[in-house]
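Backbones bend. Shown next:

***
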Amino acid sequence: MEFPKIWLLRHGQTEWNAQKRIQGQLESPLSPLGVEHARRQAALMVPVMAQKPACYASPLGRAQQTADIALGGAPFKTDPRLAEAYAGAFQGMTLGEVAAQYPQIHGANPRNLDLFCEAPGGEGYERFHARILDFMHALTEPSVVVAHGLLGQVMRGIVCGLPRDGMASLPNGQGCVYVLEDGAETVLE
């Protein structure tokens, strides 16, 4: 599948990221380190933003807070398809609490993409993948996307032709920019 070039930014660290607490579609503001991540992205994005690309962000606050900083004040559209995976019963719990209360699910899913997608009452991998792919098919020009870690793993995996297992293994950096083009990714740091 061919898509327009995408510059993908994961939001900066949030207070809940620092606590290893699952956000899913709940809100948690950027930590001071997260603001620094967004500032690092802003420096990387200067030459990109000079090209006046289309810009999109998740409707969740942490992504919008990151976009406001990282895109240098440029306008962006929010799209509900860019929200993080809905993690059902796990939202608001720490990883340790999930391990204690759902030991079978936690033990069988050591990586976050798999764990969050197996959450009771959650969105699940197939629906999550479908809405990300739907967004990507709607892109008609080179675009900046400011979103989330698991969403980014799936989007990057779709571009690179990876199976789910490969997506779940991708690193999930903050403060960098993933450039997705021609079936490959490069990382600006």
Observations:
- The chain has one domain: 6-188.
